[in-house]
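Internal QA ticket QA-208
Title: Verify multi-chain structure generation after dependency bump
Assignee: T.L.

Test input:
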Amino acid sequence: MKETTKKKLDYSINLLRKSEALALRYDPNGGFCLAFSGGKDSQALYHVAKLAGVKFHAFFSPTSVDPPLLIRFIRRQYPDVEFMKLTTNIWEMAKKKRILPTMIRRWCCAEFKEIYGAGKVTLIGIRREESARRAKRNEVEVSSRKFSENFDQFSEHEEEMVTCVSGKDKILLSPILTWTEGDVWDFLNSEGIPHCELYDQGYKRIGCIMCPMSTTRQKLREMEEYPHVLRKWCQTIEWLDEHVWKYNEKIENITLRDRVHWWISGLSLEEYRQAYMSPTLFSKEEMGEDKIEKLIKAAFNGAK
Ligand code: SF4
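Actual output:
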């Protein structure tokens, strides 16, 4: 393992060890909650926690759009990870909310992924390098963002903090916040830890199928590989069109193909309209008029 990775690993182990007492104060039986996704970052988090020897309980929150290969990988490699119960699916939730999940309104994470761990210390595998938003995150945060600092600053104010952590609040601890993608792979490979096959198939990011946080290119690939998911989203879009959007004159009269195209573009409706006029904003593949049309047809033709 590289020296730089080793240093970060030591720091993360130390952070986990010194914060364990806090986790045990909130949950004497379980210790930390560990939000496990099966992706490389949460694998690194899980194995760092094992090396630190701290008490934790790892759980996976399904969303109904989880890649089957990922589920099989978690069940096979991490039998101790608890699978939380799914009480509804993402399409029904979209109808209930009357909106599709988007990069800006990522309600699905809040509804499916972030509902566990209230009143406890939850370990999360986010890294600053991942996005501009995550670059601003801190090692310890109270979920309602009443507090965001490093662990030592948290300890100084713990007395006041404890009163904040009630009801749905949770303390989020990010032990691999400063790790780079290279550090994560260096650690996993040096420790001989197997990863999900999806990475070997070229996926850079694994998680929900057609996640609004993925690139347009990845979403197009998933539309092809998981036609049933595309079909369900098309049916949801048609439902929203019929029950919600047709009353909104700003977004009426748009075809299903255009709606899907807009949604996977990750743009706001206004940005999308402008981009549509300017072909340079989309690559040929992303613009993919024919491609999207064909994928939608295939998704419905293959319907059982
Ligand atoms: S689709 Fe993406 S944003 Fe939504 S729950 Fe899954 S990972 Fe989170």
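Spot checks passed. The chain has 16 helices and seven strands.
Status: verified.
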